[in-house]
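Memo to structure team: turn this sequence into structure tokens by end of day. - J.P.
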Amino acid sequence: MDIIGTATTQITEISAARFDAEVSGGFPASYSYAWSVTSGTLISGQGTASMLWDSPSTGGNTFLATVSLLVDDGTQQASKTLNILVTPLDPPTVELSPAHGAIAFTGSAIPFSGYGTDSRNLAIPAASMTWYLDGTPWAGKSGLSSFIANPGDLTPGVHQVSLAVSDFLGYVTSATHTVTYGYAAADITLPVASGTRFDTGATINFTATPAPVPGLATFSWLLDGNVMTTNVANYSTAGIASGWHAISYYGTDSFAGVSSSTIGVWVNSLPVIGPITVTSPAQFATGPAGEQIFTKIGGEGINFSCSATDLESAGNLPGAALSWYINGDPATKSIGLNFIWLVDSPASLTIRCIATDSWGYAVSTSTVIWAWDWEQYTSDIVPGNSRFYANPGPLNSGTLLNNPTAIQAIDNTTLVVADTGNNRLIKVVRTNDGGLTTDGDINGAALDTVSPSPFSSGLTDLSYYSGQLYTLEKNAPVSLKRINPADFLVIEAITYPVGANNLNLPEGVVRGAGVFYVSDTSVGVVRRIDSSNGFFFSESVQVTTPFKLKLNSSGTYLYVTDQAAGKLYKYSSDLNPMSQQWVTNATSATDIVLTDTYILVSDVVNSKIYVHRQSDGGYVYEFGSTAANNLQNPFGLAVLGNDLYIVERTNPGRITRIRSHGW
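Reply from structure team:
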């Protein structure tokens, strides 16, 4: 007897299956059937050739169950066992919204909803749904298939939102989405300030936060409400027309919430303003930083002119659109295309012109001028005919200045001139009353050299030290003399040097503490001479044609001009060379005068004064020329306060005073 059937079959869980027995042999009329199963439920058919079986639940895992049959015909038995592969049903499915990665601005309400199906494709009821927020059950949300998360339900940040569903077998499936709440509000960060102005045609760069997340937090740049570009945090354009415009960074989140930032920008072409020009008087010189120098105090003033073009209207701005200021002082404001300023004292002035266009935008230009006072005193032999009566007598009555070579300040009211052509000293009196128009003016000569003159051999230079005047004659056996400045009488004839060390056509002298320095021009040396006994200390052989000399105020440095080479030399007080510097463009470096900071060098050939730094001899600027009514053969120099006095070797000789705002 035999039972026919397959050895193994497969069935899904909780499914009914029918098993039929086919038996051969034996005594069919006497067959008895006994079915058995290892799991599941035998529904019907026990004792018959057909049995109905219900497969068990797998718990989600595939396993083997066995179905066995024993057949007995009374004389013999036959059996058969089948292995049944029981497989689980498909798990439930779950979906939730919003989409993974959804973004919400602060204040947005977020709708959540979920849906699930079991293996039978039947909807899973809401009661079988559980919501989780950041890994823990979301309070009050379980058993709901949809709800609204209002502002305050979520803290700002990134959250993990999960939905778990359970089917009729107890199988659980879940899904998790990331949701960002409180995404940064739109903010234009560059340019920061609303109202920023840009030139027409210029490339304008805009930057904003937060960065767009396409499809989830979409941002667009708007120009006057029109979308220009989308989903970029940086936007550049050169195509904004002139005028006032609204620039917006406009964003929508995953839930149609809106966040935007708007600034206003002004785009226009600023007016173009021309340089300030001085129409009168003529420029006298140029300062070290390009300052225009004028010798104009009082009178008709200095005339300035400027113009501007309005590029938006393509025309010249009217005079009413131009404002003028001196040194930024509102009290000096003037309106117009031209401006006249009456300078009442030497000064450095910043002249500013501001042009304002029809839209209220302004541009400005400025120039710096130096205003100096300039007066020239030509000598006169007739009292009262000029401000410089050059003939107080008694020497050479009726003569004018003749080839003056040196001028020396004695005090605030007195200068002494070495009038070489007449071999005399003249004491010149200057006004020192503090008046803007009179201070520093030369009133005339107060004292003349006695007759006959003690200077008979080429009076060429003088030096003032410790209340005494010292003179130098280039052709005399006794070249150095000590003079009483009160009456010009010779106190001492200094007989040094003698013999082989006689001075040979010397041109310059300066008296220091215990010593004379003399430029012994013909032999090309600078001598340092003991002032009491004529003992020879040292000499420098570096100067080809030494001419004039000056000590600085502390007596530590000696400055020497080399007239033929056009050089300026600097030595220590013991004649150790320290530096040399070309006097720029000088043909004939002549006299020197020292201020606190600068060295002024006269050039008798080019009729110029060169200004150099004391510290290193470096060139700063220059002034003067050979033009008419300018400098004519400037020779000796002296400074009193802000007044520079220059003796000129004209015919007849004259004195020029230049007052600046500071030497």
